[in-house]
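Whether sequence alone determines local backbone shape is best considered at the level of individual chains. Part of our work consisted of pairing the sequence of a single chain with a tokenised description of its backbone. This step matters because it turns folding into a mapping between discrete strings. For completeness, the protein is quoted in full, as a sequence line and a line of structure tokens:

_____
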Amino acid sequence: MGFWEAAVIIVALVTIGKVMSGGRWNRQTRRWERYSEHNPYVRQGVVSNPDAVTKADLARINERLATLEKLVTDPARRLSDEIDQLRR
């Protein structure tokens, strides 16, 4: 391979790399498109909205935290009764 062939290959590789790193192939752009309202899959409900998933997880964690707080603050007898009730 001669000098000019190597130079053309290097220029082609750099050009392809620059094209891939900008525009639609950019990682940040792909992340935005994945959850955008303009994405038809998001509008149809195929892709879940991360905010809705986070809110559902937070609600579930709050319920578990309330149960744990109740167990911790109750006297020992009520604690054992609650544990037995949860086991059933």
